[in-house]
Amino acid sequence: MAKYIAAIDQGTTSTRFMIFDHDGNGIAVDQKEHQQIYPKPGWVEHDPLEIWGRTQDVMAGALTKGGIDPKDITAIGVTNQRETTVVWDKQTGKPVNNAIVWQDTRTDQICNELEKQGGQDRFRKKTGLPLATYFSGPKLKWMLDNLSGLRERAEAGELLFGNIDTWIIWNLTAGIHVTDVTNASRTMLMDLNTLEWDDQILNLLDIPKCILPKICSSSEIYGAARGVLEGIPVCGDLGDQQAALFGQACYKKGEAKNTYGTGCFMLLNTGDKPVTSKSGLLTTLGYKIGTQDAIYALEGSSAITGALVQWLRDNLGLIEKSADIEGLARSVDDNGGIYFVPAFSGLFAPYWKSNARGAIVGMTRYINKGHIARAALEATAYQTREVLDAMEKDGNVKLTALKVDGGMVFNELLMQFQADILDVPVIRPKVAETTALGAAYAAGLAVGFWKDLDELRAHWSRDKEWRPSMDAVMREKLYSQWKKAVTRTFDWLE
């Protein structure tokens, strides 16, 4: 029997390939960043060919670093930045345009027009999503409406659409055009109950059905890999946040996780029935294993968290590398009275205001770069608190602890402040990169490498826990000031 399961983790800023053993331990990893392209204010793009090139590089790199024979890999899972939209030529495999990234806000006019005819929630009952620039459906419509000749080519069956998972799997398998329920649920084109593309919404957006991938479960054999992993089954597919939910072993209704990456994403398992949010959260698919019932989740997303640290590094030159943020933030005792609301792409949950823009409020001559660094970290914790408040209200649950993962969970200052502002323990697992692990788990289940969810649950173990230590009066004072700061970003764009 082969020894390992592998996962492609294609994220917003980088691509990594991770190889796991039967106990869920990471054996080898390789990772490469790709270019962020900003053609206009509010526009964010990636080069799909660069991403596929990076994917091939890191697959070969991890195998070499780990000294692993490809024959020792049993299966491959894929996880991806969601909502990022790619359209390519079916024959040549060449993208028609750069990918439009989930953070991109160019579809605001499309969303505003749709909203006029039925309100922001006109598709929420079917899709679980409000009308927002975040999702793939409006991005695809924008391409078809604005790129010369594209609609005609799409209607003629010459083009294919997908989120990044579909693009990776199509290239990896030499032409299999599929997605899974979690990724399909982020397009605003899939009915949550039937798990099929919705003809009515497709007609409204004027999107030809022939361009769309086949919707599959998150754990089944889609096809065999070509190239360096020739013949190995590709059989796991989950959007990155759902993959983290799965990797964190949140298999019971009421279990939640928060991933700290480019953005911040909290998901709560709500069981086998979708729960409609009244508090600005998204109703989404959690996962679907083979022919088993689909599991749903409530999700709260904050667009800019880790990306704010990158912005301080790349745009302002405040730090040399992302890890330096903690030392700079520790150079001061508190935020000096400032709040940094990073609404660079508008506000996501629970506000859904595409016309908001970022602001630093409370500035005085006293403020130095340490305060700015600290306020930037605290912004992540405050945004998480807003999402948790909404989640507890919608899900009718009281969270007793929060499982966390992603790159920022090694920032001790942030994690302690997160526990303080939430007033619940924050728990980091031994394998913090649970996104790749979740995709590996889904692939492993499809080929019998792991037996069932109970076996996967047994692999989860805690690495560190932070307990709240902040005075309740201080907690609420800080949080109310944050809420006040958020209101200053509303309606910035006319």
Global morphology: globular
- Mean pLDDT over all positions: 94
Low-confidence stretches: none
Class computed from helices, strands and strand pairing:
alpha+beta
**Amino- and carboxy-terminal Cα gap:** 61 Å
Q: Widest sheet: strand order? A: 17-18-16-15-21-22-23
Strand content: 15-25%
Q: Kindly provide the radius of gyration, computed on alpha-carbon positions and rounded to a whole number of angstroms.
A: 21 Å
Query: What's the tally of helices?
Result: 16
Major sheet: size, sense and barrel closure? 7 strands, mixed
Count the strands? 23
Report the helical percentage: 25-40%
Write the layout of secondary structure elements.
Blueprint: E1 4-10, E2 14-20, E3 26-33, E4 45-46, H1 48-66, E5 73-80, E6 86-89, E7 99-100, H2 108-116, H3 124-127, H4 136-146, H5 150-155, E8 159-162, H6 164-172, E9 178-180, H7 181-184, E10 190-191, E11 196-197, H8 199-205, E12 214-216, E13 219-224, E14 233-239, H9 240-247, E15 256-260, E16 264-271, E17 282-287, E18 295-302, H10 306-314, H11 324-329, E19 339-341, E20 359-361, H12 369-395, E21 402-405, H13 412-422, E22 426-429, H14 434-446, H15 453-457, E23 462-466, H16 472-487
Parallel strand pairs: 1-5, 5-14, 9-12, 15-21, 21-22
Antiparallel strand pairs: 1-2, 2-3, 4-7, 6-8, 10-11, 13-14, 15-16, 16-18, 17-18, 19-20, 22-23
Helix pairs in contact: 9-14, 10-12, 12-13
